[in-house]
Amino acid sequence: MATASIDHGFELTGETSSLRRLIRDIWASRDLIRILSRKDFYVRYRRASFGVLWAVGLPLVQAVVLSVIFTKIVHVPLIRGGKGPYPVYVFSGILPWTFFSNAVSGGVTTITDGNSIATRIYFPRALLPIVSVTSGMYGFMPGLLILIGLALAFGVPFGIQLLWIIPAAAVMFALSTAFALVLAGMQVYFRDMKHIIAAIMIPWFWASGVFFPLQNLGNLRRWVEMNPATGMIQLYRAAFSTAAPHFETAVWWTLGWTVALLVAAALIHRRYDRVFVDLL
Prior knowledge:
Number of helices: 13
Number of domains: 1
Oligomer: single chain
Shape: globular
Number of strands: 2
């Protein structure tokens, strides 16, 4: 497995896993993913005074604060020619962004933090970031119900467009998982990744169209549409009739990012899955 050389220093090599076997092992572990995800979610909030309410309350509080600031204090004309109440508009962006940011930030260190398990028994190390992302769904689903209730309270008309929630949730989960898998693998070799992700999360938030419409950006719109998170947010807004006109471009960018990252994740974990443990 490991060889030392005076000329080349420390080299780490190992058997390359079959991609088919890697996918088969992950699929065979789906019950384990479900159990560990549920445990991870409840352990995360077990010692908090308000428990799992933080999972729902935090994005709601953020949405309220942004709504007050940009409608009552700053008075920026945010929805030029748009429709829909601004609190619903903001919350439909904050909710998926919170899930995505938590999944990416938490997923980065899942393999390195899971060394106590990973060094004892063999299982695909890709399970660890997948578990981290899946556990976030337990807090996301109540938040989604609150979003729907908020939309009803503000009189948002419901129709067939509400079904956009289904592909929106699928894209959100796939994109978050893709980022978590790639970054978790990179973190094993480059321990600065968690600090890099922490540093870029704030500018990433402001560049994702969470609180401003794409149609207000002029020439900047094409750059914001390239943001992986923008299309995900627009899909949720399509469910509440507040998406930007021609938002499909942003969605295609998000899908492109998702596919590219999943391919990269497959290559990384296929090549290094069996040697990750030697670097933990």
